[in-house]
Amino acid sequence: MDADIDVPPFFLCPISLEIMKDPVTVSSGITYDRESIEKWLFSGKKETCPVTKQVLSSDWDLTPNHTLRRLIQAWCTMNASLGIERIPTPRPPISKSQIAKLIRGAKSPQSQSKCLRQLRSIAAESETNKRCLESAGAVEFLAAVISNDGDDDDNENSLSSSSSDDESFDFARSRSDEALSILHNLHLSETVLKGLIGKNGEFVESLTRVMRQGSYDSRAYSVMLLKSMFDVADPMEMISLRTELFTELVQILRDQVSPQATKAALKLLIQLCPWGRNRVKAVEAGAVAVLIELLLDSVERRTCEMILMGLDQMCGCAEGRAELMGHAAGLGVVSKRVLRVSHIGSEKAVRILLSIAKFSATPAVLAEMLQLGVVAKLCLVLQVDCGGKTKEKAREILRLHARTWRNSSCVPMHLLAYYPN
C-alpha cells in the first residue's frame, strides 16, 4: 500500500495502528482488530481497555462491528487501483453449541480422533475460540481422553499380545497425545486449572503416567501442564502427592526431554518440596544426584539458580544432606557456584553450605570443606559485594567451625584477614 494514501483514522486499530480486518467492540465501547485485542487480553493477560484503561467485563465479550467492517471493505474496493487489497469477510467465531455438539458425537475411537483434529483446528484459529472451548466443556473431554488412555493400557495388558491389540493400544496413545497437545496449547485459565487438579488427584495421576510412558513431546506437555496446575493449587493439594510423581519429575530432568520441560520440572520440585514429606520423596527419587549432575553442566543463569533452589530445599532434611555429601561432586560444585551465577545463586549456595555446617558437620565433612576450598570461598564472600544476607550466612558458617578452620594452612593468608572474630 502506498504510504501517501490517506486512511480514515477510525479504520485503524488503536493497538496495531493498521487497518482492521475483523473489527470488534469491547465493553468500554472502543473498537479494535480482533487479533490485536485477543493478544492483549488473553496472551498478555490484561483486564483493561488499552485506550480508556477501564476494567472490561469478566466474560471479555468481543462484539463484531459489522458496519465498520463493511465500510472498510467498501473503502478498500474503491481504492483498489491504488494497490489496496479488499479485506475478506472473516469467519465467525465458533459457538459453544457447535463445540458441545462436536464433543457429544465423539463416542467411538474413530469419531474421537476426528473430533480431536477438529478441536485442534478450532483452537488454532483464535484466542476467542480457545476460551470458547474452555466454556463449552472441551477441557473435560480432553482430560477424559487422556485418563482413559490408562484404562486402555490396563485392558491391553490383560489381552494377548496380538498385532491388533498393539494397533489398538497405539491408536489410544495417539488420541491421548493429541488431547494433551491441545490442552497445552489452550493456555488454560486459572479456574479451569483448579478444576483439573481438584479431581481427587486422578488427573495428576494420569499426567504422571504420561510422563512415564508417553512420547518426548507428551512428557514435556505433561510436566508443563502440571506446573501450571500447581501454580494455582491450594497447599493442601500439595501434601499427599504420590512418590511416583517425584520419580517421573526426576526422570524428566535426567532425560533432558526439552529445555522447557527441564525448567518446568525444576519449578515443580521447588514448589512442592516445602509441603508435607515431599522433599523426602524427591530425595528418595534421586533428585539430589540429578540436580548435582545438572549443575555441573549448566551455564544458563536462571537454570543454575533453580537447581540451587532445589538443592537448598532438599538439604532441609537429613536425607537430602546425606545425598549431597555422598556425591563426589556435591560440596565442590555448590561451592564453585558461589559468586559465579548471581546474587540469588550465591545466596542459595551459601544456604546449602550453612545447612551442612549446622546439621551434618562431621570431622570428615569439615576436612573436606577445607580441602575443596569451601572455607576460602566463604572468606572471599566477606570481602565482595554479594548481598548482606549471603555475607551473614557465610560469617555464621565460619564462626561455627572457627576452631577447626581458622589456623589451617589451606586458607590463603590474604583471606585469613577477613576471617570473622
TrEMBL record:
EC number annotated for this UniProt entry: 2.3.2.27
GO biological process: defense response; protein ubiquitination
Database matches in InterPro entries: ARM-like, ARM-type_fold, ARM_PUB, PUB22/23/24-like, RING-Ubox_PUB, Ubox_domain, Znf_RING/FYVE/PHD
Top-rank lineage group of the source organism: Eukaryota
Catalyzed reactions: S-ubiquitinyl-[E2 ubiquitin-conjugating enzyme]-L-cysteine + [acceptor protein]-L-lysine = [E2 ubiquitin-conjugating enzyme]-L-cysteine + N(6)-ubiquitinyl-[acceptor protein]-L-lysine
Class in the EC hierarchy, top level: transferase
Gene3D superfamilies on file: Leucine-rich Repeat Variant, Zinc/RING finger domain, C3HC4 (zinc finger)
Keywords: Transferase, Ubl conjugation pathway
Function as written in the Swiss-Prot or TrEMBL entry: Functions as an E3 ubiquitin ligase.
Lineage, broadest ranks: Eukaryota, Viridiplantae, Streptophyta, Embryophyta, Tracheophyta
Protein name in the entry: U-box domain-containing protein
PANTHER family: E3 UBIQUITIN-PROTEIN LIGASE PUB23, WDSAM1 PROTEIN
Biological pathway: Protein modification; protein ubiquitination
GO molecular-function terms, A-Z: ubiquitin protein ligase activity
Residue span, U-box domain: 6-82
Keyword Cytoplasm: no
